[in-house]
Amino acid sequence: MKIKSVKFEKTYYRYFEPFTISLGTHEDQENIEVRIELEDGTVGYGEASTLFVISGETVDIMMQVEKTVQEMILDEHVESYGKLFSRLQQLRATPAIKAAVEYAIIDAFCKRFGIKPYQFFGGATNYVETDLTVGIMDLEKTLKKVKKIYSDGFRKIKIKVGKNFKEDIERVVESKKIAPDAVFIVDANQGFTPKQAIEFAKALHSERVEVVVYEQPVNRHDVEGLKLVRFNSPYPVAADESVFTRYDALKLIKEEAVDFINIKLMKSGISDALAIVHLAQSSNVQLMIGCMGESSLGITQSIHFAAGTGAFAYHDLDAHLSLNEKVFRGDFKQEGPHIYLT
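The structure assignment produced for this chain is given below.
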């Protein structure tokens, strides 16, 4: 069945509260919805979401790619998705658009043949458990938010750090006291030097904080620094911003610089994300899956990918919970941290 049309549309959301990481503060989010229609009227949807400080993409830049994508895939058979994915590899400067278009193709394909996307990805399960993220804020606000998250049933909590060394240590240590049986993912978003990152990890360890993933502690380009932290940290070290493509992942695996890789479809697209899964599984490197600023429509993509592959130890799929969406568009049901595909 041929692809008849491809359309991009801007969407806009406000965060319920400002969201701060070491790279800056975000109060709103612009995304792009991708709509692919087949000759028989079947429609597949995808969403592109990005943070300029991470990927260098803006919504205006991504919108300019619409005509290029049309030239790549219009009048092609959706069943030839492998060929289309190869063509879409050219969208190196707009990985979020690549992800959205690839998923829209998969969504249309699955609707055409009466299966769910998670089954397309392998059908390992139709369920994931997500963490919930606490941005950088003062101690009082941090503890109030952690208490609410914990009372809502979340036992995996992600805390952003990387702006103030001493305050960040206090925020994590005190959070552990009010969430005693929770485990923590600590994400510095490149905020530390290698020396600071090692000292930070050792300080938390001395307070017996259970950190299951220590995410992107140093600059994304500092492979040697990342490796130094990995071999001197009591916690497993993950690369996030350091890994966009399969080639980034291969380099870090060969350098023995990581214990974990955080895959985000918005950084890698579907095709590279699948390749990274296979590389990691072949190299005894563990995986987590994260998100940018996706709405419920975009988060659906990662839920299907994560559930279908069954490849991830931890899931950080909570962006939609921070956005003020007027209409919920996911095909999943969420009960606290538990997400079920419908």
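Interim note for the steering committee: The chain has a mean pLDDT of 97. DSSP finds 13 helices and 14 strands in the chain.
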